[in-house]
Each structure stands twice: as structure tokens, then as C-alpha cells.
Specification:
By secondary structure, the chain is α+β, with helices and mostly antiparallel strands. It is built from nine helices and four strands; from the N terminus they run ααβααβαααβαβα.
Length: about 210
């Protein structure tokens, strides 16, 4: 019930208070929630960039429809997906699993070979789109964690991904930007949305039970 109350409290904050920083421990827990989120085959094919540099954030704002949250928020998280599934990336995650668990499993190794024989050959664009969908799972976890921490957040797709990639040199890192999440605290007297009721379809229009 507490979590649902906080999800009712959250909204896509339109005006952030640039004078109120978010405590680092809260940011750490929000990022950790994204890190712990599930991903297909456990590959975790995305990274989170915490953009602190004011000049870079000003540049990003210019290619994000001048949305003030980009610069006014305490922290700006950019979720960037792998540009492709390569054998090196797949092997790294399988090797990491073996290292953490301390043993090798025959079925797990067979699954590794299955991915190695299929994923790289699908093409970079197909693989990026798959990786981007995984990034959204972590992004959703971060949004929920922010609400739990009572930190305001603004899910943001309204930006030019190619331009953000260039500003943050993501292509050189074999990453592509997917979605951004400014974190901060609402400036209620400047935010037209703050007191409006949350609008969601009623449950009976949203859920269908299939028996």
C-alpha cells in the first residue's frame, strides 16, 4: 500500500527546483534498482550515464525541445543501450555469471552457444532495438524507485538521440541513447501539472482476465 501511495504521488514533473539537490544515497538506490532489474538472458545490455557536467546538460537541453528539467534537475540519468550484441559482450556476461556463482553448468554453457550462434547474426539494428527494450525495464524500475524515495522524476523520450549520442560520445562506446530520467524536486508554484488529478484508465478497461 505504501508503494502504491507513492506511485499515486508521483507525476511527470514539469518544473524542477534547481536549488534542491537529491541526496546521493537516494540516487544510488534509484540506480541500484535499475541495476537489479531483470533483462533477457541476464545480459544487461545497457548502461546508465549520470550526467553532472553543466555544459553538457545545457547542450542536451538544446536537443531535447528545451525541456528545463534537463538542466534544472539535480541529476540527469541517460539510459544507453548496446548498439549490438557481439560475441565479446555475450561471453563477458556468461563468464561473469560463472565467476559469481562459482561453477559452470552444462545447460548454461549450451545456452551461451545458442545465443552466440543467433544474436550476432541478426544484425545491429535488430539487436539494438532488443537491447533498448531491456533498457526500458531498468528505466521502469528507476521510475518506481524514485517514487519510493519521494524523488521527482520526468520520463523523457523527447530528445534527438543521435545528437545526445554525439554530445556524450556514446557511439565511440558502442552505445546509443534510449531514454532519459531527470531526478530532482518539484517546484510546485511553477508547475502547471502538480495539482491536477492523475488520469489512468479504470481497472476494468485496463485488465482482462483470460480463464
Amino acid at each position: 500500500m505504501e508503494l502504491l501511495n507513492k506511485l499515486q504521488w508521483r507525476y511527470a514533473t514539469k518544473a524542477m527546483d534547481p536549488t534542491r539537490p537529491v541526496a546521493q544515497d537516494k540516487v544510488d538506490r534509484i540506480i541500484e534498482a535499475a541495476r537489479l532489474a531483470p533483462t533477457s538472458s541476464g545480459l544487461q545490455p545497457y548502461e546508465i550515464l549520470v550526467v553532472k557536467n553543466p555544459a553538457l546538460r545545457a547542450q542536451i537541453r538544446e536537443v531535447a525541445w528545451n525541456q528545463a528539467q534537463v538542466t534544472d534537475a539535480s541529476h540527469l540519468l541517460v539510459f544507453a543501450a548496446w548498439d549490438d550484441y557481439t560475441p565479446e559482450r555475450i561471453n563477458h556476461m556468461f563468464d561473469l555469471t560463472n565467476e559469481v556463482r562459482g561453477f559452470r553448468n552444462e545447460g548454461w554453457e549450451a545456452y551461451r552457444q545458442q545465443l552466440l550462434s543467433t544474436y550476432p547474426g541478426r544484425g545491429a539494428q535488430v539487436n539494438f532495438e532488443h537491447a533498448a527494450r531491456q533498457a526500458y525495464i531498468g528505466f521502469g524500475a528507476a521510475v518506481i524507485a524514485a517514487a519510493f524515495e519521494q524523488v521527482d522524476a520526468t520520463p523523457m523520450e523527447g530528445f534527438d538521440p543521435a545528437a545526445v549520442d554525439a554530445i556524450l560520445n556514446l557511439r565511440e562506446q558502442h552505445l546509443r541513447s534510449v531514454v532519459m530520467l531527470p531526478l530532482g524536486y518539484r517546484q510546485a508554484d511553477q508547475d502547471w501539472l502538480v495539482n491536477l488529478p492523475k488520469v489512468r484508465r479504470p481497472l476494468e478497461q485496463f485488465v482482462t482476465e483470460v480463464n
